[in-house]
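To the wet lab folks,

You asked to see what we're planning to order before we commit. Fair enough. Below is the target structure as tokens, and below that is the sequence we designed to fit it. If anything looks off to you, flag it before the synthesis order goes out.
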């Protein structure tokens, strides 16, 4: 196909909600879970199929099936910006944040994948590469883990060559002192240790953690010490935290205004964004542009296989979260999970699109 041509019309949109049990119970500082729901979207046009997905709830599948899919019929799949704006308008009365924007995210990713496949090009090339590989950090260390499990998981990532690992923490200082000591012993002195409270602490508690546990064990990243809605609290912690400690938040952002307000409040040293929540690749690149304007690094939240192409294209990217639960699901459900080399994920440029294809025989086991 030629770049100046319209694309073949969209003929069908398939939606598959899947719920997969975790390999063991998981918990962070504010939530517990035993299963993960993925909403898979496939868009068909011109003999090709684009694949997208989000980690959400079944309601996202209903929005795609009942609202977005009918509006996409016979549309030009190359007009992704126009379709993205149209979808935002379609969910106006019951969104556009939350589940509605996660539904848009899955469709947007599928549209970008479809466009690249129609051109028989890797999506990294279509988006325009800023880098050839993406640094990752291992992420897990759930509060449900025994010390032995915590040691094995984080130490295993360090042995694989990862330069950064992250664990979940709660508000119990005594318990977390022991757990963080186990983590540091597992990964050694040269691997950076990240912690994530998922908003479990007050600003006062968070600063006490900064001055004690973070200094004692050389923690270099403190994610959501307080709720990401508490911009003043994040700013206060960032202002008074040790200089070697990055304060990070943003994974629950759904639209550019949210991210702009967080940056204007000087709430974070590193902004996080999740393409499966903030409107897909289109929304993620908008966040990257904001980070560029504010001169703040960007970190991608979870869904590593999905994020890899857009992370290769993002100007301000620092790293990508290699989240245990999503790595397990994506390796199980998709052919083409990217290779890990020396602590980086590397795209396979021999495969068109983002390189993933659904293993239908596996997906059918978990269809809701």
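Sequence we intend to order:
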């Amino acid at each position: 196909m030629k770049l100046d041509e319209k694309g073949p019309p969209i003929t069908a949109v398939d939606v598959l909600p899947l719920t997969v049990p975790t390999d063991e119970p998981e918990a962070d500082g504010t939530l517990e879970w035993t299963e993960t729901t993925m909403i898979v979207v496939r868009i068909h046009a011109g003999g090709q199929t684009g694949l997208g997905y989000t980690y959400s709830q079944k309601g996202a599948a209903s929005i795609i099936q009942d609202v977005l899919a009918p509006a996409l019929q016979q549309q030009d799949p190359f007009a992704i910006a126009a379709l993205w704006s149209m979808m935002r308008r379609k969910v106006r009365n019951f969104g556009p944040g939350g589940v509605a924007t996660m539904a848009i995210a899955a469709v947007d990713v599928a549209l970008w994948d479809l466009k690249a496949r129609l051109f028989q090009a890797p999506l990294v090339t279509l988006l325009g590469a800023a880098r050839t590989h993406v640094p990752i950090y291992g992420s897990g260390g759930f509060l449900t883990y025994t010390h032995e499990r915590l040691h094995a998981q984080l130490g295993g990532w360090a042995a694989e060559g990862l330069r950064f690992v992250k664990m979940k923490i709660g508000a119990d200082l005594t318990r977390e002192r022991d757990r963080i000591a186990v983590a540091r012993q597992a990964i050694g002195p040269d691997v950076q240790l990240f912690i994530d409270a998922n908003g479990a602490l007050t600003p006062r508690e968070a600063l006490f953690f900064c001055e004690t546990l973070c200094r004692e064990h050389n923690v270099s990243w403190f994610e959501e010490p307080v709720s990401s809605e508490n911009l003043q609290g994040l700013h206060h912690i960032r202002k008074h935290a040790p200089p070697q400690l990055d304060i990070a938040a943003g994974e629950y952002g759904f639209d550019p205004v949210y991210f702009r307000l967080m940056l204007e409040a000087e709430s974070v040293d590193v902004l996080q964004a999740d393409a499966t929540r903030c409107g897909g690749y289109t929304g993620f690149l908008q966040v990257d542009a904001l980070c560029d304007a504010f001169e703040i690094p960007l970190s991608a939240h979870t869904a590593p296989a999905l994020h890899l192409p857009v992370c290769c294209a993002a100007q301000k990217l620092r790293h990508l979260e290699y989240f245990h639960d999503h790595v397990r699901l994506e390796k199980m459900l998709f052919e083409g999970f990217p290779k890990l080399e020396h602590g980086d994920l590397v795209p396979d440029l021999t495969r068109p699109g983002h390189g993933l294809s659904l293993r239908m025989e596996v997906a059918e086991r978990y269809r809701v």
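Structural context that might help your review: The first helix runs from residue 58 to 72. The first strand starts at residue 10 and ends at 27.

Thanks,
Computational group
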